Structure formats: C-alpha cells, structure tokens
Amino acid sequence: MTTTKQPGTFTVRPMNISPGGPGHRSDAEVVHGWVTHPRSAFWMMGDARLEDVEREYAAIAAHPHHDAFIGLHDGEPAFLMERYDPTEVELAGLYEAEPGDVGMHFLVAPPETPVHGYTLAVISTVMETLFADPGVRRVVVEPDVTNTAVHALNKAVGFEVIREIAKPEKDALLSACTREQFEAATTGARR
Fold first, then answer.
1. Strand, helix or coil at 8?
2. pTM of the predicted model as reported, rounded to 2 decimal places
3. pLDDT at 1 over 50
C-alpha cells in the first residue's frame, strides 16, 4: 500500500562504526538489517553476518577515498549513502574520469509502508549532499544492468547512461549526472 503523505525531512550524517551504547543499536546493526533484506539483493550482502557488515564499513571508514553516511528521515535512520573517488575505488581504470567526478551508492531501508515519492526524495537528498561540495562537478554511478528501478530513479534526477561496463561482481550501467543536469531535472519536478 502506498500512502500519499509528504516524505518529510531528510538529513545526512557520517556513519558511526562504533558499537551502540546500552539500549542503542549501532549503525552497523541498522545497516545489517537493510543489506540482508530481500529487497536489497543488488547490494550483494544478503548472507552477510553482522561481523561482515562491521568489517566492510570499518574498511570504508579507514579508506582515504571512500566514505559512508547514514541518511535520516525525520531524525531516524532511513538510508545508507556511500561517496567514493571513482578514480581510486569501484571504477578505477573502467571509464574516462573527468575533474570533479564523485562516485555514489545509496540504499533505502526497506519500508514498512511505502510512501509515494520517498525514494525519489532520498536520491535527491543524496545528490544535494554530494553537490554541496563545490569541487563536485559530476556524480557517476554503476548500478547493475538489471536494476531497472534504480535506472528509472537515476534518470528522474538527471543521470544519463554512458555505457555498459563489466565489473568483477556485475555488469553495470555506467551513468553520470552533472550539477546542471541534476538542477534541470529536479527544478522541473518541483514546479
């Protein structure tokens, strides 16, 4: 069932890899529930244990070219965002990088009750967060070629397909979105 209520307020903070305190779940525990959910199959962590998620995000936190963030919806954890340097991580040697490129992954928590426009609001928040850095000129992504839902979302916020690329773990649809493409796509959507 889809509700018609407004998506609410979205914010982004760095992922905390420290264990949660008494009565508080750690970010890794929250993310573990998301990445192992059947709706998150494209994240390729369906069989991951909590220790696997902790190890993965500790490695990201220690990496000089990769960062992870927790997105909040009305103050509650609601999505995961990763930012990376595509010349160093994920796409190194697989595409023609341009100055100001940044790579991105995002994962929306599986919803209890879907809200119309929610995932579009999440990806818009992710893009606004990335473009808040004046050095970012273009966002590049590499979703699985069969992930048609994310292809539609990417297109809705201004991404254009560059080409298919073969990565070790998947065939991906390399796509890019400039600041101008994002602004044009989302300005038209707000009217």
1. coil
2. 0.89
3. no
CA pair distance 105, 121, nearest whole angstrom: 15
Residue at token pair 């989302």: 186
Count the alpha carbons within 13 Å of 112 in the hemisphere toward its beta carbon.
1
**Three-state SS sequence of 151-188:** HHHHHHCCCEEEEEEECCCCEEEEEEEEHHHHHHHHHH
Q: Which of 123, 109, 111 has its CA nearest to residue 33?
A: 109
DSSP β-ladder status, 66-73 and 160-166? unpaired
CA dihedral (95, 99, 100, 102) in degrees, to 10, reads 20
CA distance 63 to 84: 9
- pLDDT per position as a tens digit, 60-98: 999 999 999 999 999 999 999 999 999 999 999 999 999
Distance CA 120, CA 99 (A): 27
